[in-house]
Amino acid sequence: MFRLHKTSSIKQKKILNIFVYIFMAFAYTSSYASSKFMGDEDVFLEVVFADEDGDGVDDEDDACTGTPAGENVDANGCSESQKDDDNDGVFNNLDACPSTNEGVEIDEKGKKRV
Questions:
Q1: pLDDT tens digits, residue range 45-65?
Q2: Residue ranges of the domains in the chain?
Q3: What is the DSSP string of the chain?
Q4: I need a labelling partner for 26 at 20 to 30 A (CA). Which of 9, 32, 33, 114 fits?
């Protein structure tokens, strides 16, 4: 029996496939492995990828760790409260002007100061 949890990248799947092939080749060719693993019992291999913040993106691929619970994330694991697309120092979810030009002086809401 084989179960895989939360694969998030082709790279991880390829690495896992290589591991499984090597493991199975060892199990079928080794007299020790054969006697231990290949009797009437199923071989059970469980692979779990870590996702500490529970956002659905594996930690290895997560650009924004610590995502607040329940927030939607992009493919990089970043929610709007963790991104600042215009680099003005105000996170997207609080930014009243999400496309501030570089060098413009802003207030705490991301609006241009006058």
A1: 666 678 999 999 989 899 999
A2: 2-72, 84-114
A3: -EEEE----HHHHHHHHHHHHHHHHHHHH-HHHHHHHSSSSPP-EEEE---TT-SSS-GGG-SS-SPPTT----TTS--GGG--TT-SSS-GGG-SSTTPPTT--B-TTSPBP-
A4: 9
Residues ≥6 apart with Cβ < 8 Å to 52: 59, 65, 66
Contact 88, 100 (CB under 8 A): yes
The closest of 66, 36, 45, 41 to 54, measured between CA atoms, is 66
* pLDDT, tens only, 1-28: 444 445 445 555 556 666 666 666 665 5
Tokens of 52: 């500490």
- Rg of the Cα trace of the chain? 23
